[in-house]
Amino acid sequence: MSNPFPRLFSPFKLGNVALRNRYVMVPMTTRYTDDNGGVTDKLVAFYARRAEGGVGLIVFEASYVERRGKHSAINTAGIHEDALIPGYRRLTEAVHAHGTPIFMQLGHAGSRANSSVTGIKPIGPSHIDLRHEEVPQELSTEGVRELIEAFAQAARRAEEAGFDGVELHGAHGYCLAEFLSPAYNKRKDIYGGDSMGRTRIVREIIERIHALAGKDFPVIVRLHAQESYKGGLKLEDSIENARNIQRAGPAAIHLSAPRGPRGLPEAGMERGRWATLAEAFKKALNVPVITVGAITHPSMAENILKHGQADLVAIGRPLLCDPDLPRKAASGSLEDFRECILCNMCHHTRPQVNCIINFECGREYVAEYHITRAIKPKKVMVVGGGPGGLEAARVATLRGHNVTLYEQSQELGGSLRLATSAPHMQHMKEGVDYLVREVKRLKVPVVTGTRVTTRLVKNEKPDVVIVATGSKLGRLRVPSQGAGPRVVSPEDVIAKRVQVGDCVVVVGSSTAAATVAEVLALQGKGVSFVVGAEGLGKDMHLYFKEALIDRLRDEAVIMYEPAELARIVGRDVVVRKLVPVKGLKFAVQEQTIKDVDTIVLGEGAKPNAALAARIKGLAPEVYVIGDAAKVADAMDAIHHGSRVARSLGVEGRIFPQLWWERIKNLP
Ligand SMILES: Cc1cc2nc3c(=O)[nH]c(=O)nc-3n(C[C@H](O)[C@H](O)[C@H](O)COP(=O)(O)O)c2cc1C
């Protein structure tokens, strides 16, 4: 059978570097580096695994070219000193071993750097800060020349470390992007003014790199296709910039187009949305164009190439989720392909990059976590078909254990499936669907509509029981008089297990609470949303949160934040709210919400571990996972399920009961 993606798997030459296919791995800051921006085992294994998966080219994550350019307190990659070269050589060798070329992205945070991290005042093209961060020091003309030299020296180090080329990070509001953008660059010298002036720094960096590393050392330039903030680059301005940069001979132009000046597309963004922007550049330029942005499926990449919108297709999050995506697409067999759900949990919920449905992401270097056949297959009962239970069943089956999955309702997916009924959670549905599909594909026996009892466990005589029974409603700890409103959980509401009246108070600050507030408001109920002092959405990505707050406002949800319930008198709910008064002081104010029918308690849920206590001693091994162990998010539940299933039958490998105590020390 011929490959369904012929263009995607046709070779390409980027300068003198031969690519075996058109897939490029985008730079993604993993935070797997050490304190000085250097290489770790974790970093090497992560990139080697993506190379092994068959991607045509890897662009290594943004690496700061000098100390002033480090952008975050948490580890970011750096190439600011020669001492880093041997470490990076180890990384490039591990990638080259799979026949994959690798470029390094050279970055400088510019005004997005933070003096409390670097100990030095941030620099920028002009004395301007549009993000309300630190106002940078404007570089002198001589200072710009020094910066150009810092980029060139960094490229020289990258070449010595074995990188096949470099990419200049001219996007996402960092230093070079600020030079390119009229919103930030107000300079009066040769590095400011019109497009020729603003792009001069990039041209001179390319020329200096070519002088140091040789004319045939390829330099890609990453640019914003457009900037969506006031005074930023419009599409035609950015094309003009690219034309002017083209004069210096870049190997390719790599386009990005995030919503704000930061680098990330929003969760659940429309797939492949930026390809039309890339197309406009392709028509205007004579150098190869790379497009990016939620291109989750190879058929989308093939289409982009077919319509001539770009020469190369870059993917980021899809490779966190499934490093074998290129290999699977090349073989034409996508049967067990894990398609990225664009939830953005990869980068905003944990200190280092992680993937909700690929537990191995960032743990490739831990041999014990690889899925290996169990030496002695065990009979395993997984109780609970939520995300944690599904993942435990999937992995234990792949390892050759004899697994049966029990779910007391009729449907698999647990609270995550319920959450997906809110409009803003649609993308999560695909994550649940993937787990359910895999369990079916692996022919795991699934028993739905059955409550697991001690008798059932005694009859089945399993070697292992994995208890994934989720959480239960917590207690509303508020003084109350009389028969008050009915108190229900978000899950009860979304699963339509309870009737909800017309006047509802939702309490909590989590995604689950916000989801239920939105769903009820869309049903036309009067919703008051009481958000605690920790603020709405501590478990949410910033973009996601901004959009959600806008929608709640549009749906006329009345927000009380920061606030708490004070007391309930009959059906009146009294809310205690902090309101700002003069200066930075706050006063406590009470407000009464009259005639409340229902309170949805979106906080204080408790582990539902009753079964675990009852079956203690009935099976040689009993593990409690996910919310049944400690209420957390879906990623924790899935990863916990994965970790336990990977440890089955391996003496002393992991002690899941101690998971929460140990998790911080585990990779
Ligand atoms: C975890 C993470 C880290 C990122 N770090 C960088 C970076 O270092 N440099 C950069 O230019 N873009 C960075 N980006 C943006 C990506 O390169 C890419 O433009 C974006 O993720 C869209 O591609 P995707 O939809 O295929 O993920 C990052 C994205 C993610 C998800």
Explain briefly what this protein structure is.
With 667 residues, the chain is of the alpha/beta class. The protein contains 22 helices and 28 strands. The model is unreliable at 652-667 (pLDDT under 50).
Q: What is the CATH-assigned architecture of the largest domain?
A: Alpha-Beta Barrel
Count of folded domains: 3
Distance between the termini: 41 Å
Bound molecules: flavin mononucleotide
Beta strand %: 15-25%
Helical percentage: 25-40%
Strands of the largest sheet, in order across it? 3-4-5-8-9-10-11-12
* Overall 3D form: globular
Task: Write up what this structure looks like.
- The protein has 667 residues and is of the alpha/beta class.
- The chain folds into three domains: 12-338, Aldolase class I (TIM Barrel, Alpha-Beta Barrel); 367-472 and 606-665, NAD(P)-binding Rossmann-like Domain (Rossmann fold, 3-Layer(aba) Sandwich); 480-601, FAD/NAD(P)-binding domain, CATH 3.50.50.
- Helix content is 32%, strand content 18%.
- The strands form seven sheets. The chain has an eight-stranded parallel β-barrel, surrounded by seven helices. It has a five-stranded parallel β-sheet with strand order 15-14-13-16-28, covered by helices on one side. It has a five-stranded parallel β-sheet with strand order 19-26-20-21-22.
- Helix 13 (387-398) links the parallel strand 13 and strand 14.
- Helix 4 (141-160) runs parallel beside helix 6, helix 7 (235-246) crosses helix 8 (275-284) and helix 13 (387-398) runs parallel beside helix 15.
- The two termini are 41 Å apart.
- The relative contact order is 0.09.
- Bound molecules: flavin mononucleotide (FMN).
- Residues 26-29, 61-62, 105, 169, 171-172, 222, 256, 263-265, 292-294, 315-318, 346-347, 353 line the site of flavin mononucleotide.
